[in-house]
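Input record (one chain):
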Amino acid sequence: MQICPSDTEINMTQLVLPNDTNQLENLLGGRLLHWVDIVGALAAKRFARKEVATVSIESVDFRHPIRKGEMVMLNARVIWSGRTSIKVKVQVKAENMFTGSTIETNAATLTFVAMNEAGVPDSVPKIFPVTDEDRSLYDRAQAEYESMKSNRLT
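The corresponding structure, as predicted from the sequence alone:
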């Protein structure tokens, strides 16, 4: 069975409450990272059908603040898989609940590893990119993996 990125997609919605904000009434970066890690892990777990553990957060782009009272929409999907590793892209948007306007606020890339029942890294299926965007993200992730692997050996 071939699994494509859209098969792994997870959408999560959160409301920014006062306890989630800093003194400027913007969403705390740590709270956002918590949500990003959760939605990313859910996409990785849906793909692997196994427990997963976060290995790294390769990138997080903070493009626009998210304000108290806004709805945060997180979208995660698997973009690459290795032998035991799973790379997930998370995109974040905020919606003003009164005007309906939305803005892309954040993007992140995370890597997870699949774990068996004994907590040991376990194999995962291959992801099959379908769209041009899927292929572009996959190719970039593959190149990063090969670069990292060659740097680790030297």
